[in-house]
Design a protein that fits this description.
Layout (H helix, E strand, L loop, with lengths): L1 H9 L2 H4 L1 E2 L3 H8 L5 E8 L2 H11 L7 E9 L2 E12 L4 E9 L4 E9 L9 H4 L24 H22 L4
Antiparallel strand pairs: 1-6, 2-3, 3-4, 4-5, 5-6
């Protein structure tokens, strides 16, 4: 028993990780009460994947683009994508919420499996929001860098660019 307690003391934060929101809780943040939420999956063609990577200047981590569509009174109000990326050596899970015109409305960290000192703050995540050109969603461009969290902020910025580019290619290309 004492050995178990001692082992717990030596387990680093990165192994334990921190979960801030479950999927259902995250979707309530994206689409509050009164929204109808549907899940959609698009199998990206090699051409779509290449286009997304070219636009986002970042790797697409899956050939499936899985997103949520929020409707209010039968009209599309916006979209959300829950994705994950390796920041340093472990995953971070995040959600990108976009308006129906594909403006980034929110970026929410759902789980962070790195030590907490590498975790970007909610105030920093707000820099990823808005209608800035996709090339400005980059630390040192339209997004401030954070000393000591370089890999985390680059990973999250890459993820937001890929999410936006995925909607541009997979949704607008299909309409």
């Amino acid at each position: 028993m004492c050995l178990v307690a001692m082992c717990g003391v030596f387990v680093p934060d990165a192994v334990l990780g921190t979960v801030f929101y479950a999927k259902d809780e995250a979707l309530q943040v994206a689409f509050p009460e009164g929204f109808e939420i549907s899940e959609k999956t698009v199998m990206l063609s090699p051409e779509q994947r290449e286009a997304i990577e070219r636009i986002a200047r970042a790797k697409v981590t899956s050939g499936l683009f899985h997103f949520f569509e929020g409707k209010q009174n039968g009209q599309v109000a916006g979209y959300a994508v829950i994705d994950s990326r390796i920041m340093r050596t472990n995953l971070a899970v995040y959600m990108v919420v976009l308006s129906k015109t594909l403006v980034v409305e929110k970026v929410v960290l759902l789980a962070f499996n790195e030590p907490s000192e590498y975790q970007p703050t909610d105030a920093w995540l707000k820099h990823l929001e808005g209608d800035q050109p996709i090339e400005e969603i980059e630390p040192g461009q339209g997004v401030p860098p954070i000393a000591g969290s370089t890999l985390s902020v680059h990973g999250l910025a890459d993820g937001v660019r890929v999410a936006r580019a995925s909607f541009e290619v997979a949704l607008r290309g299909a309409q």
